[in-house]
């Protein structure tokens, strides 16, 4: 798995923190890692973007981005409004493939959800994943509404012949309710792919050294961690029963 594409079911579901956790776990396992942000929106020219945030949290990764646009909009819209050249899926694939020749793992982080458009032709992160023949990790939310959006995302991936490697909950609440606890079982049931982790809410606020030490415990062995979905569900069920 030299390239892993990281997408979300929506914006603000924790893609960047999950990407950082995957990077940190891979680094802890002795692998070299690059992180590619396909299109960064909503930041100024001198402000740190998502790739820089991954590097801050995870450590010694190669951080790269193809383009950035000042307004916090879909990349195609942000590029058009800024009068700048959009990013195309073939450019994403080309840059990721080059990084893969120099690193053990390349993480390609999208913007928003899977089908958010990068250019006027309708190019998406899914198109870039197809060009790369790369598996896709889906980051989702913990609570109500997540079953529908996650299943739709996984169905779209499968419909395009892409491999959804699994689902990670991007922000697991400190005090989960009934819906969150039920979703631990329902997410893999409705999607047909494994639950590969749950990153605690606020993880991105941890000191980098603490984040790096904890990251492998939030992720399953498939993505270089030690997290066990069944044990996590049983623990949360016991807490909820108190």
Structure notes:
The structure is a single chain. Helix content is 41%, strand content 20%. The chain is α/β, with parallel strands linked by helices. The strands form two sheets. Strands 4-2-6-1-7-8-9 form a seven-stranded parallel β-sheet, with helices on both faces. A two-stranded parallel ribbon has the order 3-5. The relative contact order is 0.18. The model has no long low-confidence stretch (mean pLDDT 95).
Summary tags:
242 residues; alpha/beta; seven-stranded parallel sheet; 9 helices
Element pattern in H and E: EHEEHEEHHEHEHEHEHH
Oligomeric state of the chains? single chain
Uncertain residue ranges:
none
Q: Assign the structural class, choosing from mainly alpha, mainly beta, alpha/beta, alpha+beta, or little secondary structure.
A: alpha/beta
Our count of helices gives 9
In which order are the strands of the major sheet placed?
Answer: 4-2-6-1-7-8-9
Distance between the termini: 41 Å
Strand content: 15-25%
- Largest sheet report: 7 strands, parallel
Shape: globular
Radius of gyration: 17 Å
Total DSSP E strands: 9
Average predicted confidence as pLDDT: 95
Strands, helices and their partners?
Elements: E1 3-8, H1 15-28, E2 33-37, E3 40-41, H2 50-58, E4 62-65, E5 68-69, H3 75-82, H4 89-100, E6 105-113, H5 125-132, E7 136-140, H6 146-159, E8 164-172, H7 178-191, E9 195-200, H8 208-214, H9 229-241
Helix pairs in contact: 1-2, 4-5, 6-7, 7-9
């Amino acid at each position: 798995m030299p390239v892993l594409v990281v997408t979300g079911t929506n914006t603000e579901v924790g893609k960047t923190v999950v990407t950082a956790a995957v990077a940190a776990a891979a680094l802890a396992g002795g692998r070299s890692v690059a992180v590619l942000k396909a299109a960064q929106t909503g930041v100024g020219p001198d402000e740190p973007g998502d790739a820089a945030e991954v590097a801050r949290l995870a450590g010694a990764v190669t951080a790269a981005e193809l383009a950035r646009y000042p307004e916090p909009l879909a990349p195609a819209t942000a590029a058009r409004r800024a009068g700048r050249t959009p990013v195309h899926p073939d450019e994403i694939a080309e840059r990721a493939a080059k990084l893969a020749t120099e690193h053990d793992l390349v993480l390609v982080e999208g913007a928003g959800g899977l089908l958010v458009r990068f250019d006027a032709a309708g190019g998406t992160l899914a198109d870039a994943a197809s060009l790369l023949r790369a598996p896709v990790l889906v980051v989702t939310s913990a609570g109500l509404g997540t079953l529908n959006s996650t299943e739709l995302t996984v169905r779209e991936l499968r419909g395009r012949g892409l491999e959804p490697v699994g689902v990670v909950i991007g922000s697991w609440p400190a005090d989960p309710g009934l819906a969150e606890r039920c979703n631990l079982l329902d997410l893999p049931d409705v999607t047909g792919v494994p639950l590969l982790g749950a990153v605690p809410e606020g993880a991105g606020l941890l000191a980098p050294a603490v984040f790096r030490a904890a990251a492998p415990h939030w992720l399953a062995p498939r993505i270089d961690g030690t997290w066990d979905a069944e044990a996590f569900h049983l623990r949360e069920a016991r807490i909820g029963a108190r």
